[in-house]
């Protein structure tokens, strides 16, 4: 998965997309946190590749996992993806992703403030 991440940074997001999709498909369901991180990275790869709607769709799947696990690592990846697609709010999937990201962030912040 690190290789796929490097492909994004090297300007080869489609190579990253292929690697992420193959690995996510092969990943056992029990690895929820890893699945969330990889979906978030797949979302970023799609966004960098100029496919913000496909990125938003992967991001929405990752958000469902974050809502269950509270994974800060996944949330960080999704925030990076949101910055990439931020100007594309007119696209329905991107608008939905952005709205759900904010809801999950707010919910997690509330949970953290109660725990302290």
The radius of gyration computed from the alpha-carbon positions, rounded to a whole number of angstroms, is: 14 Å
> How big a fraction of the residues is strand?
under 5%
**Tertiary shape:** globular
- Return residue spans where pLDDT drops below 50 for at least 5 consecutive residues: none
Based on DSSP secondary structure assignment, what is the total number of beta strands?
0
Q: Helical region count?
A: 6
What structural class do the secondary elements suggest? mainly alpha
End-to-end gap: 34 Å
- SSE pattern: HHHHHH
CATH topology: Serine Threonine Protein Phosphatase 5, Tetratricopeptide repeat
What can you tell me about this protein's structure?
The mean pLDDT is 93. It contains six helices and no strands. By secondary structure, it is mainly alpha-helical. Helix 3 packs antiparallel against helix 4, helix 3 (32-48) packs parallel to helix 5 and helix 5 packs antiparallel against helix 6 (92-115). It is globular. The protein has a single domain (2-115), classed as Tetratricopeptide repeat domain (Serine Threonine Protein Phosphatase 5, Tetratricopeptide repeat, Alpha Horseshoe). The N and C termini lie far apart (34 Å).
Outline:
With 116 residues, the protein is mostly helical. Helix content is 82%, strand content 0%.
